[in-house]
Structure formats: structure tokens, C-alpha cells
Amino acid sequence: MQILLTNDDGIYAPGIAALKRQIQDLGNITVVAPDIEQSGVGHSITFGHPLRVREVRLHDELLGYGVSGSPADCVKLAIYEIMDKKPDIVISGLNMGANVGIHILYSGTVAAAVEASIMGFPSIATSFEITDQYADVHDAAGAARGVIERIIKHKLPRGSLLNVNIPSRPSHQIKGIKVTRQYARDFKETFDKRVDPGGKAYYWLIGTNKSIHHEEGTDISAVNEGYISITPLRFDLTDTGLYHKIENWSWEGVPLTATNKKS
Ligand code: MN
User: Fold this and answer.
1) Alpha-carbon gap, residue 203 to 200, rounded angstroms
2) pTM: predicted TM-score of the whole model, two decimal places
């Protein structure tokens, strides 16, 4: 089994190392990851400047390939240029921080898995909730391995995509696994406004994964309750309901030229 392992925290991040260690006997693993942290870059790609790839070694052992780009860049480069054989599965993570609710849209971890899915490969994004209570990435990677192994056993169809989130608690306190839907409502975010030594304002975005509204059956609720959450995702963003509505609006007679001419 050929496995492509990537992330958005960067090739030196603890999560990818812990996950690689836990899944190394599942197949032939190729690590292709950003050379610096790319959390929150979403599905960005690089086309205005070149991408560099370099072998990353630790004590003479090849850890993988560091790419000077985004997680989506890593998946494209890995599959088109770096791997000798196509992957049977693409795994992204283990991300330090849950990727649930609307955070899925900002996440580079999920974007890497989405990219693989677009390219027709089955993929799994894996993230570990970080709280001040508990954060043993090795335990979390062990739990992720159990889930990944089961997903592989069930044969994830071509191009399908699962978003897995592990709650931040000791493994014996994890209550089980729930298949969930994405929490798609607002969540609490604020800016912390500060003043720099020159007297000018600057801002830090402060967000939380704790939903304002509890909504049973969602990824956020499952993780908050201590369950591993598995959400099947898709990248077709078409709103079919709205499509049928606006299709019937009148589109006749819309002027299609500039009305304010240059003087
Ligand atoms: Mn990250």
C-alpha cells in the first residue's frame, strides 16, 4: 500500500512525526509537507513563483520532502513529480488543533486532503484538538491509526474524503467514534487590539472551536463530548436549492456593456 502523508504544520511538526511512527507498518509511506508552517492557508496554491523541494534527513534517515509551498502544492507535487507510484491513500495530519465547523474552510490540513480527493485519490484529514487540559500527540496519533486502519479495511472509494478529529483527552477517556456532519453555523471570534511601540494599532485574531450553539450530530459537538468525529466532506460547493431558484429569475434584458463610458 502506497501512502502519501502530508500536513499544514510543516515537515518538522510533532503531529506528522507521531502519525508516521504509528502508521509506518501500514504501507510504504512518502512524506511530502511544507518546509514551514502553513496553518490557515486553506486551499491556496503557488503559481507566481517557483516551488523548491528538498530532501529532509534526520540522523541520515530520510524523513521526507520539504516543499516551499502550501499543503495543496505538496499533494500535487508529490503525486505528479515525487512519488514513483500513485498513492492508494493520502493522509493529512496529524494537525495540532481541531478542524471542525467553519474552520474546515480555513484549514490547510483539510485542503491537502481535498486536493487529493479532487485528483481522484481517497483521502483522510486528521486533526487533534488542543486544549489546556491534555495534549499527548502520541496517544492521539495512536487513536488516529486505529481509525485509519478501519477506513482502509472498509476501502474508501476513489476520490472520497473523510475529516477525522480526535478530542483532547487521554485515550481511555475517549468515549468512541461518531460519524458526524459539519457544524456550519457561526462561531465566536474576536480581535485582540493592541498598540505597538510606535503607537500604531495591530490585531490578533482569537477564535475558538467551541460552538455558540450546541447542535447534536455535528463535528464540534462530538469532539466537545469526547468522541472521535468522522465527517465525510465534498468539494462541490454548488447550492442546488439556490440554483433552482435563481435559474427561474428573469435574466432577460440585463445590459452587458459598460454604462459609464470612459471620458
Ligand atoms: Mn495546522
Assistant:
1) 10
2) 0.93
User: What's the CA angle centered on 115, arms 113 and 121, to 5 degrees?
Assistant: 75
Reference 107, options 86, 121, 128, 88; nearest CA is 128
Q: What is the whole-number distance in angstroms between the Cα of residue 175 and the centre of ligand 1?
A: 25
Q: How many Å lie between the centroid of ligand 1 and the Cα of residue 246? A: 38
Q: Please report, for the domain that includes residue 132, its CATH number.
A: 3.40.1210.10
Which amino acid is located at 39 in the chain? S
Q: Which of 122, 40, 110 is nearest to 79 (CA)?
A: 122
> Does residue 227 belong to any structural domain of this protein?
yes
- Average pLDDT over the chain, rounded to an integer: 94
Range of the domain at 28: 2-246
From the CA of 74, how far away is ligand 1's center (Å)? 14
Closest by CA to 127, choosing from 235, 34, 220, is: 220
Distance (Å) from CA 109 to ligand 1 centroid: 6
User: Taking the CB of residue 40, how many other CB atoms lie within 10 A of it?
Assistant: 15
What is the amino acid identity at position 15?
G
SS3 39: coil
Mean of the pLDDT values across residues 54-78?
94
Q: Per-residue pLDDT averaged across 171-192, rounded?
A: 91
For cell 450553539, the residue is 213
Indicate the DSSP class of residue 157: P
Q: Is position 258 within any domain?
A: no
Average pLDDT of the residues in 180-193:
89
Instruction: Indicate whether 212 pLDDT > 70.
Output: no
Total domains in the chain come to 1
